[in-house]
Amino acid sequence: MKKPLRVTITGAAGQIGYALAFRIASGDMLGKDQPVILQLLEIPPAMDALKGVAMELEDCAFPLLHDIVTTDDANVGFKDTDFALLVGAKPRGPGMERKDLLKENGKIFGPQGKALNDHASRDVKVLVVGNPANTNALIAQANAPDLDPRNFTAMTRLDHNRALAQLAEKTGKHHTRIDGMIIWGNHSATQYPDIAHCSVDGKAAPELVDQGWYRDDFIPTVQQRGAAIIKARGASSAASAASAAIDHIRDWHLGSDGKWVSMAVPSDGSYGIKEGVIYSFPVTCKNGDYEIVQGLEIDAFSRERMTLTEEELREEREGVKELL
Ligand code: NAI
């Protein structure tokens, strides 16, 4: 039998955590032959609720689940961990500016980065889900100087999957028939869902849909999908966010079979996006690593949007520079 891998979930008693833990324990993320140990991290007021989550996990009798650790101490939660899903974050309070939210979250992601640095596996793969996800990932990365900076990523896979769903609906084809979807930039309203390189059943997507729909309907629908879910459900997306987190780590660990997926990763100068931000790019994954898809032609329309979302990330970076 394979050696169990350790998976830490922060905010594990929250909505997304509750949707995540059971699917990971059932093998959806790391494979149906990979035993796991779940290390669930919460804050003290949520420890009772977390105990309930752990009790339910036990009651599922998952064959792959070898142990459950519950803790409010990041040094314990990240001990020897192989995968860290940083979901727990402070929500925006009434009247709170984005700047204040960034600072409040910096107080969480700085210490968590340090705890990862001091206690996690040297190959730990980190996915930040808690918002503002890209900049939280940057803060965690900056506080973990002994770990590979490339292993700090943020989630735009939910946006990617939302874009697939919209294009599938429009073209009447199943989303598995779509290749080449891209989300560029920040996981925020400035993200740029780009179909310029997409194909549907082998046909170029820009030739299948009219530009008016693409610019005035598709792009804002994907950008605002989170708000639409809150309006409809009375709560923010949780199961779909958890599912996207599973897709992100599964592809990173097991490979994407040549398919492009969107991951927010440390910028390396690709497509003119200068270093220093965690920016969503199209990537392929193989052998436990990711690679940014290179050589795509970028037209003026795309460039403008890619720059806009980059500028937002640079502003966010500026707002937390004392935490980096
Ligand atoms: P939630 O409020 O239901 O759960 C958050 C949990 O985190 C709570 O149980 C809270 O006690 C815990 N927590 C807070 N600070 C913590 C800390 N320092 N250490 C450990 N745990 C801590 O929220 P939900 O719905 O689960 O969402 C979590 C985050 O994910 C939010 O920031 C949300 O904006 C973000 N999100 C990101 C998406 C993306 O695509 N990147 C999509 C959907 C949500």
Automatic annotation (TrEMBL):
The keyword NAD applies. PROSITE patterns: MDH. Residues 6-152 form the Lactate/malate dehydrogenase N-terminal domain. It catalyses: (S)-malate + NAD(+) = oxaloacetate + NADH + H(+). Residues 156-322 form the Lactate/malate dehydrogenase C-terminal domain. InterPro entries: L-lactate/malate_DH (IPR001557), Lactate/malate_DH_C (IPR022383), Lactate/malate_DH_N (IPR001236), Lactate_DH/Glyco_Ohase_4_C (IPR015955), Malate_DH_AS (IPR001252), Malate_DH_type2 (IPR010945), NAD(P)-bd_dom_sf (IPR036291). Keywords: NAD, Oxidoreductase, Tricarboxylic acid cycle. The keyword GTP-binding does not apply. Substrate binds at R92, R98, N131, R162. One of its GO terms (biological process) is malate metabolic process. SUPFAM superfamilies: LDH C-terminal domain-like (SSF56327), NAD(P)-binding Rossmann-fold domains (SSF51735). It is an enzyme of class 1 (oxidoreductase). Catalyzes the reversible oxidation of malate to oxaloacetate. Belongs to the LDH/MDH superfamily. MDH type 2 family. This is Malate dehydrogenase. It comes from Natronospira elongata.
